[in-house]
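tool_call predict_complex ligand=2-acetamido-2-deoxy-beta-D-glucopyranose
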Amino acid sequence: MRGLLPTLCLALGLVTATQGLLVRHDNSFQPDHILRVTAQNYSQACMERYSVLVNGSSPGPELRLQEDKVSWIRVYNDMEDSNVTMHWHGLSAFTAPFSDGTPMASQWPIAPGHFFDYEVRPEVGYAGTYFYHSHVGFQAVTAAGALIVESAQPSPYKYDEERIIALSDFFAKTDEEIEDGLTSANFTWSGETGAILVNGQGRLATNATGSCKLAAISVKPGKTYRLRFIGETALSFVSLAIESHDVFEIIEADGHYTKPVKTSYLQISTGQRYSVILKAKTEAELRKAKSRQFYFQLTTLGRPTVLTNFAVLEYPSHIATDLTTVPVTPPLPVANITYGWMDYTLEPYYPDLNFPTSTEVTRRIIINVHQNVSTHIVWLQSGYDWMVTFPKSPYLVDVYTGKLDLNASYKRAIASGYGFDNQTRLFPAKMNEVLEIVWQNQGAVNTGDIENHPFHGHGRHFYDIGGGDGLYNSTENEKRLNGTHPVTRDTTVLYAYRTETMPLTPSGWRAWRIRVTDAGVWMMHCHILQHMIMGMQTVFAFGDQAAIIAQSDPVDEGYLTYGGSAYGNATYHPLVQHFFDVHEQTV
Ligand SMILES: *[C@@H]1O[C@H](CO)[C@@H](O)[C@H](O)[C@H]1NC(C)=O
Ligand SMILES: *[C@@H]1O[C@H](CO)[C@@H](O)[C@H](O)[C@H]1NC(C)=O
Ligand SMILES: *[C@@H]1O[C@H](CO)[C@@H](O)[C@H](O)[C@H]1NC(C)=O
Ligand SMILES: *[C@@H]1O[C@H](CO)[C@@H](O)[C@H](O)[C@H]1NC(C)=O
Ligand SMILES: *[C@@H]1O[C@H](CO)[C@@H](O)[C@H](O)[C@H]1NC(C)=O
Ligand SMILES: *[C@@H]1O[C@H](CO)[C@@H](O)[C@H](O)[C@H]1NC(C)=O
Ligand SMILES: *[C@@H]1O[C@H](CO)[C@@H](O)[C@H](O)[C@H]1NC(C)=O
Ligand SMILES: *[C@@H]1O[C@H](CO)[C@@H](O)[C@H](O)[C@H]1NC(C)=O
Ligand SMILES: *[C@@H]1O[C@H](CO)[C@@H](O)[C@H](O)[C@H]1NC(C)=O
Ligand SMILES: *[C@@H]1O[C@H](CO)[C@@H](O)[C@H](O)[C@H]1NC(C)=O
Ligand SMILES: *[C@@H]1O[C@H](CO)[C@@H](O)[C@H](O)[C@H]1NC(C)=O
Ligand SMILES: *[C@@H]1O[C@H](CO)[C@@H](O)[C@H](O)[C@H]1NC(C)=O
Ligand SMILES: [Cu+2]
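tool_result ok
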């Protein structure tokens, strides 16, 4: 749609800038999807909890978007005393500038009683499995839902039907109690997860009393299924296998088809998605197995306590499936190696000629991460935390208003030697740089503790170039990469190769490569909600001010203030810019 009025503009001869059409979203405007966010008492795993819900449930309704098509998603904040934003996890480079859903990074949060119209356009080649979730505080523990991008092109893999299997955590404490505990000088941990839920259902892992049911995934004998696994957990890193179904084939990771890889189990962190092909048993095989229901076994990895949870794979039967009994002893073994799963193994389905080689890398940014204990317990990246309370206004807003001087920030970042500007707490990059970003785990300052951190990148997906123990050594890693074909991902795990080491000692790394092609403000952060709240977030700015505002200049002032006129409410129709309906402006 770029250049809606090119002929006219050429006739006038004075093309100066592009600007998204400014449209009053009154009653004549129909969003493609509507999500309503409330906070209310809600029951999961036989436990009532005050939770943030999308359309009254957790998970919220499934969204289906089309490749290359703009979808308008209206998000209402029906809560009385909390802000909300919605993030389209994995799709962030393909949303309009203010639509990435990161509070104080890409937009002002949606105030109570207000709504915001998100403009999202999945790119061609990104058909796959995603999810949406709130990006405020601990809300995403319940405020999340599946987002599937469909393609007009047929899938390279054939299957009869698909099933969504979204994993989430249950915590007994409320979001507010958890947030207060984590940010208090009197630090209080959230507690461990009470249950890993499947599509919102399940039973407490340790004391499964009551009548609440395990999730049932129904399949028909002899059919082929695409199971879409979504890591919507707050904390849990999960090992997952299916009883008597020893082999399935991975075909998608984070929205991209992969070459098929056979496996008997998955390891899925918060933020990750995998699709697998599962061939359901035939009637003959079911007779041989003497059962028509089988457990999904979900086991937490890398936490002080190991919790095991279940869901049920059910085949049609005259006997009702038993959804309230859980096995006394877990039926399946759990791999004792919790790091390195599928590293250097997954390959893109379609050959990717765009992978940046080491010689193309223009800048390597090593980000040391560790826990620090002073007045508070915080997670630091390059010596600093990032919390939503740090910026006075969103970075993207400051780029538009000119308050943020990205050129000066870039100078400071380069001078620091870490690629980090400690004044703005930004990692700025110029267009067309090729970055190698290395997350380097270090022991906590006092205890030497080491944990798993599933790092998530907003913006265009990065090439994951692996992970390993100790200190990152690019020469060594180049040798390992030889002959491999790195995939693009949006979430990969910085593993704990041990539970503790000496304070500040390097202990494990994860490396990414990214071509800086999509101007904007992109967060890169650990996806464990507790860690985010404790400061484990970074903000990258791709492109200078000119590159970022090129998408629309000027932008309407309604985006630039909290509760501004781009945000609607019960009595006010917002004035919204259609960034993908760009016209050239003449003066
Ligand atoms: C969410 O609920 C609203 C009404 O409350 C409804 O209009 C909308 O269609 C629902 N959204 C989805 C995706 O089901
Ligand atoms: C939610 O439940 C708590 C007790 O668990 C109760 O105190 C509170 O009033 C309930 N809130 C609402 C809005 O129903
Ligand atoms: C909502 O966001 C605004 C703007 O950042 C902030 O001033 C306010 O404190 C937030 N409200 C809540 C309840 O967190
Ligand atoms: C710290 O928090 C714990 C748990 O919430 C509480 O039991 C304790 O009294 C608190 N201590 C102080 C000094 O506030
Ligand atoms: C089960 O656990 C929950 C929370 O962890 C607790 O509130 C409840 O009292 C426990 N029930 C039993 C029977 O132990
Ligand atoms: C995993 O188990 C195997 C066999 O049981 C054992 O040889 C190996 O040392 C274990 N590895 C770890 C990291 O515990
Ligand atoms: C890290 O902790 C030390 C004390 O152990 C403290 O002096 C320092 O200010 C802390 N740094 C940050 C950024 O929290
Ligand atoms: C930033 O630097 C570039 C050159 O690298 C220059 O073209 C541009 O005008 C500068 N922008 C601002 C706002 O200073
Ligand atoms: C930024 O880093 C420099 C050099 O280490 C230091 O002098 C300065 O105080 C830091 N500024 C802030 C705001 O942390
Ligand atoms: C990296 O590994 C190579 C061997 O492959 C070694 O020669 C080099 O010293 C290592 N670099 C560092 C910084 O340890
Ligand atoms: C990559 O591996 C091949 C053998 O598999 C070897 O011939 C080649 O020299 C290696 N390339 C590099 C850059 O190490
Ligand atoms: C609704 O939005 C308009 C325009 O931003 C504002 O003037 C009005 O105060 C808002 N109403 C409420 C109840 O916030
Ligand atoms: Cu983390």
